[in-house]
Amino acid sequence: MLIIDNALPEHLIRSAIAAWPAKDWTGWHRYKNATADKYGSLHGSLIPAACRIALEQLALRVGDHLGSSFVDYEYHAAGLHQLPPGGFLGRHLDAVKHPLRPWQRTHSVVLFLDTIIASGQLIVEDQEIPSVSNRAVIFRTDNCWHAVLPTKHWRRSLALFAWRETSDTIGSTTATFEVRNERNRDTTDSCCGGDTCGTRPCSGR
Q1: Is residue 204 assigned to a domain?
Q2: What pLDDT, on a 0 to 100 scale, did the predictor assign at position 202?
Q3: What whole-number distance in Å separates Cα of residue 146 and Cα of residue 108?
Q4: Which of 83, 128, 141, 191 pairs as cysteine with 155 (C-beta 3.0–4.6 A)?
Q5: What are the pLDDT digits (tens) for 78-115?
Q6: In whole angstroms, how large is the CA radius of gyration of the chain?
Q7: Coil, helix or strand at residue 12
């Protein structure tokens, strides 16, 4: 895992925040169930220009830390994420298999837009990472349990996922959540374990 503070120029963060869609934006899909309460952007083409530019610059910033993997610029299972007050994301493993392409997911990248005190922390394995504006977190997807603790305030973030092309893709196209001390596949929605599956998101990030 790698944490990069001040990952982007501050003017890009300000622009992304200013262009951030309202909670009633038609490009959001909300997941609210026992494993998550979050919003995810439906499709990369719907993302506001300022947010797309920030995502592209984030991809350039972290590219050297992704090994031989590549970023999906269609932002399938990535893009814009937000949690409302009280929102959370249960402990889970991300999907590793792309549902539409012969790709295997290797890395997750999160860039926080908001500084939130004493809530909304990202938990990667046993490490607690506070949401600090312009902080990027990169971690490998395979066998990496992670979660987001309940937040007291709106928590906005940009997300990228990195992949590698393979003819021997193994693993699940859906996230695996740990619920009540049991590891269960979340089958509430048929999804890719990230934020968008085709034209709709899923809750596995």
Answers
A1: no
A2: 45
A3: 11
A4: 83
A5: 999 999 999 999 999 888 888 888 999 999 999 999 99
A6: 15
A7: helix
List, in order, residues 6 or more apart from 109 with CB less than 8 Å away: 58, 62, 136, 137, 138, 159, 160, 161, 162
Residue 163 forms part of a structural domain: yes
pLDDT band at 179 (very low <50, low <70, confident <90, very high): low
H or E stretch covering 148: strand 146-148
Would you state the pLDDT for residue 37? 97
- Our count of domains for the chain comes to 1
User: What whole-number distance in Å separates Cα of residue 6 and Cα of residue 45?
Assistant: 27
Site of tokens 């050297």: 64
Closest CA to 104 of 36, 170, 176: 170
pTM of the model: 0.86
Question: CATH no. for residue 176?
Answer: 2.60.120.620
Domain of residue 57: give its range.
Answer: 2-17+28-185
- Top-confidence residue, 100 or 52: 52
Domain presence at residue 205? no
Report the pLDDT value the prediction gives residue 169, as an integer from 0 to 100: 65
Rounding to the nearest 10 degrees, give the CA dihedral for residues 19, 8, 10, 136.
Answer: 80
Report the DSSP beta bridge partners of residue 89: 36, 148
Asked whether 173 and 91 are in contact (CB, 8 A), the reply is no
